[in-house]
Amino acid sequence: MDEKALPGRLPERDRPWxxxxxxxHSSAAATNALFRRNLAKGxxxxxxxxxxxxxxxxxxxxxxxxxxxxxVGVPVAHLGDMRALFEGIPIAEMNTSMTINAPAMWLLGLxxxxxxxxxxxxxxCAGTTQNDIIKEYLSRGTYIFPPAASLRLTADVIxxxxxxxxxxxxxxxCSYHLQEAGATPVxxxxxxxxxxxxxxxxxxxxxxxxxxxxxxVVQRISFFVNAGVRFVEEIAKMRxxxxxxxxxxxxxxxxxxxxxxxFRYGVQVNSLGLTEAQPENNIQRIVLEMLGVTxxxxxxxRAVQLPAWNEALGLPRxxxxxxxLRMQQVLAYESDLLEYPDxxxxxHVMTALVDGIVTGARTELAKVLEMGGVVAAVETGxxxxxxxxxxxERRRRMEVGTDVVVGVNRFTETEPSxxxxxxxxxxxxxxxxxxxxxxxxxxxxxxxxxxxxxxxALTRLRKEAATTANLxxxxxxxxxxxxxxxxxxxxxxxxxxxxRAPTGLTGAAGASGDAGLAxxxxxxxxxxxxxxxxxxxxxxxxxxxxxxxNGAEQIAxxxxxxxxxVVYQGIRLTAGQIxxxxxxxxxxxxxLSVLSGSHLAAVPAVLDGLRAAGRPDLPVVxxxxxxxxxxxxxxxxxxxxxxxxxxxxxxGIIDELVTVIREANDLP
Length: 668
Fold this sequence. Notes:
Heterodimer of an alpha and a beta chain. GO terms for molecular function: cobalamin binding; metal ion binding; methylmalonyl-CoA mutase activity. Keywords: Cobalamin, Cobalt, Isomerase, Metal-binding. It is a single chain. Helix content is 48%, strand content 9%. The protein is built from 25 helices and 15 strands. It has helices spanning 28-40, 52-55, 79-85, 104-117, 134-140, 147-164, 176-180, 185-205, 214-219, 231-251, 281-292, 318-334, 348-370, 374-379, 382-400, 433-447, 451-465, 472-481, 485-496, 517-531, 550-561, 575-585, 599-612, 628-637, 650-664, and strands spanning 18-20, 22-23, 46-49, 95-99, 126-129, 168-169, 171-174, 221-227, 265-269, 303-305, 537-541, 565-568, 589-594, 620-624, 641-643. The strands form 3 sheets. The chain has a 5-stranded parallel β-sheet. Strands 2-3-4-5-6 form a 5-stranded parallel β-sheet, with helices on one face. The chain is globular. The N and C termini lie far apart (81 Å).
C-alpha cells in the first residue's frame, strides 16, 4: 500500500513555517556575519535583535547607554549601521522580522532606504516590524513616548506600508511578554486583542485609510505569541486567539473576506521559563513548547524562533542557536507532522479548553473596552497591576511546590553537566571594547555629514509632529540626511514628551499562604526596633536601560508584604538618580536588578556614587542573569549579595536581605 495514501493523510504536506533565530550582538558587522552563517545553515528568515539603546532611542555615546551597547542586540545608530547589517544580504529575497517598538518607524525607514540602495522594490519587501508599544508599558519597558503619541506613530507606519510596502506586516501584536509578565492564557488573549482593537481603531480614525481598505489593513496585522511548557493549553490558546480574531474583525470592522480575517502569528517559545539550574532540561522544554504552536494545523504558527538552551545563563553562542534551528528542522522535515490535517478537530477536550479561554478572554476584553480602551487601562495601572498580581500567584505556586519545575524545586540532585563545565565559556562573551568603538563610530558619523541638512530634517520632523501629518516622510528625510537614532527620538521627545508607566505595585496581591513569611515579618520588625527606626526601608533600583522589571516588582511586592517600606521608582534610571533616591529616602538597603548583562558597568557606578555621597556603608545587593565569575567581581567591588535565577524562593531572598542589613549595622 502506498504510504502516502494512508487514511487521514493530506494529499500534500503542509508547507513548513518560516524558521528564524533571534540574533544580534556587538556590532552591525558581527551580526551580519552571524546572519550569513545562520542562512547558510538553512534558516529561512531573519529576526533582528536590537540593543537597548537602539530600542529606547539613544545613541551609543549617551550616558544611559553605558554598559548596554551591543549586549542584548545589535546597535543601529544611523544609516551606515543598517547598511553594514545587511551588506551582501539581498533584502528583496529576505523575510525580515525586526523586534523594535518605540522607534519602529525609524528602523523601518533605515531598512527601506538600504533596500532601495540595493536596487530592491519596496513593494517586494516582506517582513515585520513588531511596532506594538502597549506591551512595552506592561513588561519590557522600551517605551519612549506617552501611549497616545505612540499609537499615532503606529498608525502612521501602517498607513505608509499599506501604500508603499503592501507585503510588509507593519505591526506584530505581541502577547509574548504579557505571558512572561504573569498573564494567564485568558489574560494573554484578552489583553493582546484589546491592543489590536486600539491599533485598528487608531488606523480607522486617523483619516489616512479609506473605510473600504480596512480589510487590507487587517490582513497585514500579525501577532507574536509566547508558548509555555503546558503545551496542550497553549494549543487551545492559539485556537481561541483565531476564533476571537475572526469574530472581532468581522463584527467590529466589517471585514467580510475570510482570508483577510485569518489569524496570522509567529512565535518565540518561552525564554524566561528556561532555568539556570540543570540547564540541559531546557532542551525538552523548548521542544514541548514548539509543539504547542505546531501540532494544530488550523492554528499553526507561520514563523517560529526558538531560544537556546543556555539563555538563562547569558548570551547564546552560534552553536547554541544552531541547535535550536535543528530542532525545528527535525520536526518539519523528519517527522510526519505536516502530512496530516488538524489533529484536534472534533476533540471534546480541546473544544472545552478553547471555549473556556474564549469566554474568559471576551470578559477581559470587554472590561478593558469599558474603561475606555487599552490606553486608559495602561494609564490607570489596571493592566500592569493585573499582571503583577498574576505573576505573584504564579511565583507562589512554584515556591510551595504546587507547580513543579524540574531541577529547581524538585529533583534537584544532579550530576555535573558537561554543557556548563567550561564555565563562562558556555555563553557568548561581548567584548567591552564594542561600546567604545560604537561611541567613536557615531561621533565620526556626525562629523562627516551635512549639518544643515540634518538641522532642516529635524526641524521638519518636529514641526510635523505637532500636526496630524503622517511622520514617515519626515522620518525618511532624516534617514537620508544622516540623522542618528538618538537625534530622531530626541526630536520627538521634545514634542511628545517622555513617559513613566505605572509600576503596578499598588494593586498587587501579597503572598497569602506563605508559612515562612510570618517569621520574616518578625525579623523585619525586630531589626527596625533595634535600629531605632519605624520600618526598614528598601530601595529597588533598575539602573540603565534594562526594562525587564518582572523580578524587581516581585521582590518589591514580597518585601512590602514582609513589612519593608519599599521605594521603587520604575525602570531606566541613571546611577546618579538611584544614589539620590537612596540618600533622600534614607534607605537601609539598595537592591539593584539588571538582566541585560550590563551589571559590570551599572553596579560599580552606583557603588562609586554612594561612596562619593558619603555612604560607603550602605549595603547593596544585586539580582540578575549574572555568571559566576562576574558575581565574584561584584562581591569584590563591595556588593553584599548576588542573587541569580537559581534563587527562586522570594521569601528566602527577603530573609537574606534582613541578614544583610543586620550585618551592615553590626547587629547579632
